[in-house]
Amino acid sequence: MHYAEDYKQGCCPRIVADSSKRIFSKYSMAFNGQCLIDDSFLRGEGITDFGAYAVPPRGIALAEAILME
Asked: What SS3 state is found at 11?
């Protein structure tokens, strides 16, 4: 069951698209067999501003809020 307040702390689907784009651009022979989480992967790629992925935009996504504690 989903509640309205849950959606306020989520991420928009664009985070998966941006992660996928970066993953697919990597050389497959050197980057395979990985178990990835989209925000952790993007953080490792140097992305630090996740506000654009938050719902609503510029809010703090739930994953970031948990990591900040």
From this structure: strand
DSSP state of 27: -
Q: Strand, coil or helix: what is 22?
A: helix
The reply to whether the predicted model has a pTM over 0.85 is no
The number of angstroms, rounded, from the C-alpha of 46 to the middle of its chain's C-alpha atoms is: 12
CA distances from 60 to 33, 45, 49 (A): 30, 20, 10
Model confidence pLDDT, tens digit, residues 15-30: 889 999 999 998 888 8
The single residue listed with the structure tokens 């307040």 is: 5
Rounded to the nearest angstrom, the gap between the alpha carbon of residue 34 and the centroid of all alpha carbons in its chain is: 16
